[in-house]
From TrEMBL:
Mg(2+) binds at residues 16, 54, 115. HAMAP family: BioD (MF_00336). It holds the Pfam family AAA_26. This is ATP-dependent dethiobiotin synthetase BioD. It comes from Pseudoxanthomonas putridarboris. The active site is at residue 37. Catalyzes a mechanistically unusual reaction, the ATP-dependent insertion of CO2 between the N7 and N8 nitrogen atoms of 7,8-diaminopelargonic acid (DAPA, also called 7,8-diammoniononanoate) to form a ureido ring.
C-alpha cells in the first residue's frame, strides 16, 4: 500500500496519534513514510508562517521530512470547521493545490498518509467534501475509532457512509481516548465483529508515551 487516507468517527477520535503511529510503523520496516494534512484549521502564526500542531506532528513523524507547504497547503488560522475558517480567512480551498502537493510528496516517499479533518462527513467548503479529495487521489480509507460510549454506533454509521460515498474502506484502528470507558474489551470485540474490514491495531490510552512507541500497537499492510 503506497497511500492511505485517515478519517475518524468524529473530532477527537485520535486521527493524528494513529497517523503518527502508522508512519513510525512503516518507517520501522525501512519504508520512506510521509504524512500530509491538506487542510488544517486552528493554526498559530510563527516566524515561518501559519503552523498547525497536528500537521507539525505528522511532519516530525515523517521520513524524509517534507516541506511544510506541501504537507499542509491550507493552514487556516481560526480553530473552526474548515468551511468557516477558510471563509473567515478569505481562502478558496481547491483540489488542485492539494493534488499538486500530494504528487510532490509521492516523489520522495514509499507511502503517503493523508489525514482528513474531523469526521468523514465534515465538509471542506460549500462545494467540497473530503470524499472528493479521496476520489481524485484514489485513496483507500482507514477509520480511526475513538473508543468511548457510543463508538459502536458512530463507527458503523461512518463505515456505511464511506462505502455509500464510493470510497474503499480497508481497515480500522481502535484508539482508547477515554480511560474511564467501561467494558472496553467487549466494545472492541463488538466493533471487530461488525466492521467489514480488518483491524489495523488498538492504541492504548497513553498520553505520556512517545508516539513512536505506539507504532508497536499497529500493524498496517505493506
Amino acid at each position: 500500500m503506497d497511500k492511505v487516507f485517515i478519517t475518524g468517527t468524529d473530532t477527537g477520535a485520535g486521527k493524528t496519534v494513529a497517523s503518527c503511529a502508522l508512519l513510525h510503523a512503516w518507517r520501522s520496516r525501512g519504508l520512506r513514510a510521509v504524512g500530509m494534512k491538506p487542510v488544517a484549521s486552528g493554526c498559530v502564526l510563527t516566524e515561518d508562517g501559519w503552523r498547525n500542531d497536528d500537521a507539525l506532528a505528522l511532519q516530525a513523524a515523517s521520513d524524509p521530512m517534507p516541506p511544510y507547504a506541501d504537507l499542509n497547503p491550507f493552514a487556516l488560522p481560526a480553530p473552526l470547521a474548515p468551511e468557516i475558517a477558510a471563509r473567515e480567512a478569505g481562502v478558496d480551498l481547491h483540489l488542485g493545490a492539494m493534488s499538486a502537493a500530494f504528487e510532490r510528496l509521492r516523489t520522495s516517499a514509499d507511502v503517503v498518509l493523508v489525514e482528513g479533518v474531523g469526521g468523514w462527513a465534515a465538509p471542506l467548503s460549500a462545494t467540497l467534501d473530503q470524499r472528493h479529495l479521496v476520489e481524485v487521489l484514489h485513496l483507500p480509507v482507514v477509520l480511526v475509532v475513538g473508543m468511548r460510549l457510543g463508538c459502536v454506533n458512530h463507527a458503523r454509521l461512518t463505515a456505511r457512509a464511506i462505502e455509500a460515498d464510493g470510497a474503499r474502506l480497508v481497515g480500522w484502528i481502535a484508539n482508547e481516548v477515554d480511560p474511564r470507558m467501561e467494558r472496553r474489551d467487549e466494545n472492541f470485540a463488538l466493533l471487530g465483529a461488525r466492521l467489514p474490514v480488518p483491524c489495523w491495531g488498538r492504541l492504548p490510552y497513553s498520553p505520556q508515551v512517545a508516539v513512536r512507541e505506539l507504532a508497536t500497537h499497529v500493524s498496517p499492510p505493506g
